[in-house]
From TrEMBL:
InterPro entries assigned: DnaJ_C3_Co-chaperones, TPR-like_helical_dom_sf, TPR_rpt
Taxon lineage: Eukaryota, Metazoa, Chordata, Craniata, Vertebrata
Basic and acidic residues bias locations: 8-21
UniProt entry keywords in alphabetical sequence: Disulfide bond, Repeat, TPR repeat
Source organism: Tyrannus savana
Gene Ontology CC entries for this record: endoplasmic reticulum
Pfam families linked: ANAPC3 (PF12895)
Protein name as annotated: DNJC3 protein
Gene from which this protein is expressed: Dnajc3
Each TPR repeat, start to end: 91-124
Superkingdom of source: Eukaryota
GO molecular-function terms, A-Z: misfolded protein binding; protein-folding chaperone binding
Positions of the UniProt region annotated as Disordered: 1-21
Amino acid sequence: LKSNPSNNEEKEAQTQLTKSDELQRLHSQALSAYEQEDYQTAISLLDEILAVCVWDAELRELRAECYIKEGEPSKAISDLKAAAKLKNDNTEAFYKISRIYYQLGDHELSLSEVRECLKLDQDHKQCFSLYKQVKKLNKQIESAEEFIREGRYEDAISKYESVMKTEPEVPVYATRAKERICHCLSKNQQATEAIKLCTEVLQLEPTNVNALKDRAEAYLLEDLYEE
């Protein structure tokens, strides 16, 4: 306004000031909703602010936290990926993305994201600790799958049993391991054990196609054609 005083500029300036006041008010409300654990309200307020302040990394990180609390990890990942690009050396965002992928059972993507964190700071304690865990798990799963390709089913079973010991806290890895052990048992003509284990998996995931197929193969070995 000082450089170019005119009615048009005055109106534009007043509009922008009003809008910025409104956004600050929404921001206060969003923080308040977050502190009160009303994450849905916080998300809708942050949606409004981020429609204008598209490049604000902190707001995206806050919305990601709300999405995590609301059990919407894929939306959280999207915001955290943006925050990782918008803020230099954002190790925290890479760490959180890696943790979410890990919890979802996607160990390969988890490993790739935690490596990005360590590229920025090789002494990052949380990232290094997560990296060691994911790398160990990843290696065991790759090794087990290699044994399956080679038809070494006993070795694969043993390796998948190690996977369950390496990660007892995140249920998805135990379920995947049991699914693959059932596959090995079925291929190894150990029908009774295969049926038992696949049934365990199917109680948790009734639509698990691999477990259904492997249990069907095991039923065939036992001449249980109806089943």
